[in-house]
Known about the structure:
The longest helix has 15 residues, at 113-127. The protein starts with 5 loop residues before the first strand and ends with a strand. The chain has an eight-stranded mixed beta sheet with strand order 1-2-3-4-5-6-8-7, sandwiched between helices. It has helices at residues 25-38, 53-65, 113-127, 142-150, and strands at 6-10, 13-19, 69-76, 79-88, 97-104, 132-138, 154-164, 170-179. Helix content is 28%, strand content 36%. It has 183 residues and is of the alpha+beta class. It contains four helices and eight strands; from the N terminus they run E-E-H-H-E-E-E-H-E-H-E-E. It has a domain at 6-133: 3-Layer(aba) Sandwich (Aminopeptidase). It holds the Pfam family Acetyltransf_1. Residues 15-181 form the N-acetyltransferase domain. This is GNAT family N-acetyltransferase. InterPro entries: Acyl_CoA_acyltransferase, GNAT_dom.
Amino acid sequence: xIIETKHISSKSITWTLRSAKKSDADAxxxxxxxxxCETEFLDRECGEGVLTATxxxxxxxxxxxxxxxxxxxxxHEDKLIGFxxxxxxxxxxFNHQADFGICILxxxxxxxxxxxxxxxxxxxxxxTNIEKVMLSVVExxxxxxxxxxxxxxxxxxxxxxxxxxxxxxxxNTVLMGRMRSSG
Length: 183
């Protein structure tokens, strides 16, 4: 699915929110690798589960054609600085739900970009009749959990010792969901 491009001013920067394009594939592959190396809050370790530009082209094409898929990017001064994907579950019994993920370059944390990306995803989900948007987040990422809660996500579960990081420490994963309001 494709959304209308928006230019957003937030906390001293102006950036663009738009649908991903095939021409973004190289930049997305580099961006994802960089973000994976900047934080332990994501599922992958640095260099693990790499997606190539070809992989991103396939994902973008699928997401543009499927009404239950959304792939958005955040761009600042012609540079991709973050992205988000939301994908409706394909099985009939779970088709009212979609999985959501987001990542932003660390130097752009705190500018409100995540809140805008999430808002765009939730607006799209509501308009697409997706009743529930779900995500998982490492419990140590307290600022992300607070952000998700502020836009209507609720804690639904906790996976104990779900992640084991390279230093041998275990981390819990919080499962969160946001139901579409009925009014």
